[in-house]
User: Which sequence fits this backbone?
């Protein structure tokens, strides 16, 4: 820790960072291929030593979160994706799904110390950790990060509100870590019981949205800093807010990409897509892991001085698989349709009407030459209808739209049917 | 770890052990006096370097668990008994009372690895830890012990029974750690749902009584070993069972005494009294800590080959303070009465009748010369009645009884009144 930054990595140049991460990537891939049968299969035929830059990385398949359950059922408990035997992990977890995860066997295995530091926590501070420690790994990510940073943790869990206020009164924690909603409950109960909790200066939230109005309310209640971090059970911390509060800064040991849902193809800076993460973790490596979460890359650096790329934070779920007339339709299928027609740059499948009486329209942004040529457009339209049928076994309509006219929300399938 | 024992300490000679522990004791006491104002006060005037054997240890005051709450209120949060600042502890806890405890800042701070080993757990085993991790330290004691031993822990907590069975099915833990009653719930639910949990071979229980009939039932359900350990939130593990299942073997870093409740005076081997523990822990030292729990020392060594002294396990609570005609009567007061009359070796205050119409009789084992001399006995009786009045402000009767005729149950005050 040095001054305003957790370490010097946070302020290095983009070139330095990319050289460092891509310098380490071939060894990570080779290690995963050699020690984790699941990765050997996923990355079959990949020559690790050639994956030395972004374009090489983009040739690797994306492993999507939605695939984990099946992989784990076929090769319990971790789908062959962990490099060490089950009994050699410090701890083992079960997340909703159920999906199982091992704790990697090194200090601060989920890299949360950096996020705690950015949220104002320092060695010797006392943190009330209000994530639940049972079965799922969230609380442990914070706990291990605090061990690394040198903070004392009160393992409080969620609930037992009055007892937690007793703890706050007696142990005077400097910071809260947990969900925004439980922080709100604690503050409201403290006011009701007239308990002074003004020692709580910092809060670091995760696991659910923190609306700006709620953040403002926390500040009005006396909290100096209320920041967020983003992570998943498989990856740990991927990005975190700094005091600049302009997006989330990517962790120094993650390589992120934002891709068109259902594909491995990066979208442009600013465009909403699925967050795909490669994470330098030898025990439970993740190489192009598709989180299923939507986000967008923010252009330019953070005003706080950290130089890593920033993302907008969680913008919804990318897994838009839906069922139409008894058939599943996946974002991957929409991507397949688009790829068969070079004239189409981007598409969005809109499902409307009611269940059992629904209609299907593929809205396509076509290159501008098509846009202005009616016969060509009609021919493309007809070819697309055919491809929809080939790929999805469903009859659908096509609507060609102007370039950049589709909403920037990461949606590839927009199911507008009412279910109530 | 070497063969059947966690380390060579377990099989050293009694002399070697006492020389080791008493060799380290002066430094522990000096450290506590120098760095913890609460201990400086408690051990005022004690010359640490002279506390080199059991008789010197017995001159120190007992700090009773019942005193902690007041000490902590006067000097929050730890009553001045911790040697490091609050923010430098890895974790902070709140136990019922509330009483607060810091986690000592070293590996396996509560010395549970030894108990896990004795219960059959080995590096690479997977443990399902069914103590609750929130606020209280019990689960953490096991968790840190497993880290030291090299076992993987599933931090499961208590409750969520069906989800815990999903975890058992998927992660196949070798061992259960938790309360006997929750183990019973898990087994019964597994049978009801026809889930195979036969991978669970070992169980290590604590925190409540394990009746022999329940231990037998666990074995009938397929568990190979169901053992227990004993500890407190302040001390961590004090004693543990081995496969011999003859009492609990004292931990290698604790010095134990069993004293007459309310005093610091050791009782004879086999006699029930209050467990007093001195524990080599630099961050939260405990020097003659009166647990308030009753136990007795078992004569002779354990057949398993471990040479340390054994205790019988938990035999009830020593704190027998009661209220008689509006006045509190404490075990310490009974001890004071006894000390004023050298002819009396042991006494038991029996309270009988009904509330508001109760009678008070001090049963005294007097030396045998008195026993056989009626005038001397009558004179002693009269002097005792007077002392009872002086010490308790209450009128009571005295009954002189034969030596060794009082029950061996650690009771100094026996309140036989009915409260319903």
Assistant:
């Amino acid at each position: 820790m040095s001054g305003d930054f957790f370490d010097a990595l946070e302020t290095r140049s983009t070139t330095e960072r990319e050289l460092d991460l891509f310098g380490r990537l071939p060894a990570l891939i080779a290690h995963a291929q050699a020690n984790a049968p699941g990765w050997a299969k996923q990355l079959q035929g990949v020559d690790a030593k050639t994956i030395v830059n972004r374009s090489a990385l983009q040739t690797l398949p994306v492993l999507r979160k939605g695939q984990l359950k099946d992989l784990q059922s076929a090769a319990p408990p971790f789908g062959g994706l962990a490099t060490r035997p089950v009994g050699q992990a410090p701890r083992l977890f079960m997340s909703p799904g159920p999906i199982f995860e091992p704790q990697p066997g090194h200090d601060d295995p989920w890299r949360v110390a950096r996020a705690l530091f950015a949220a104002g926590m320092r060695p010797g501070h006392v943190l009330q950790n209000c994530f639940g420690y049972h079965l799922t790994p969230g609380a442990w990510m914070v706990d291990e990060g605090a061990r690394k940073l040198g903070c004392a943790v009160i393992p409080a869990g969620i609930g037992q509100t009055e007892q937690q206020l007793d703890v706050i009164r007696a142990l005077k924690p400097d910071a809260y870590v947990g969900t925004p909603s439980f922080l709100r409950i604690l503050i409201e109960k403290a006011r009701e019981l007239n308990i002074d909790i003004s020692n709580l200066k910092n809060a670091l939230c995760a696991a659910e949205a923190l609306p700006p109005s709620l953040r403002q309310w926390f500040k009005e209640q006396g909290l100096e800093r209320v920041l967020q971090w983003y992570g998943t059970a498989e990856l740990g911390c991927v990005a975190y807010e700094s005091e600049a509060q302009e997006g989330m800064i990517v962790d120094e040991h993650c390589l992120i990409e934002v891709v068109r849902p259902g594909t491995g193809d990066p979208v442009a800076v600013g465009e909403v897509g699925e967050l795909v993460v490669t994470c330098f973790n030898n025990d439970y490596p993740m190489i192009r892991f598709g989180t299923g979460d939507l986000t967008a890359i923010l252009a330019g650096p953070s005003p706080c001085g950290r130089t890593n790329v920033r993302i907008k934070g969680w913008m919804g779920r990318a897994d838009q698989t839906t069922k139409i007339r008894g058939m599943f339709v996946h974002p991957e299928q929409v991507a397949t349709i688009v790829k068969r027609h070079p004239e189409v740059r981007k598409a969005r499948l809109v499902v409307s009407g009611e269940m059992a009486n629904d209609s299907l329209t593929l809205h396509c942004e076509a290159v501008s030459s098509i846009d202005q040529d009616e016969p060509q457009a009609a021919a493309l339209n007809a070819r697309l209808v055919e491809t929809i049928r080939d790929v999805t076994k469903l009859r659908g309509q096509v609507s060609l739209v102007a370039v950049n006219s589709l909403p920037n929300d990461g949606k590839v399938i927009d199911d507008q049917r009412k279910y109530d």
The longest strand of chain A covers residues 344-354.
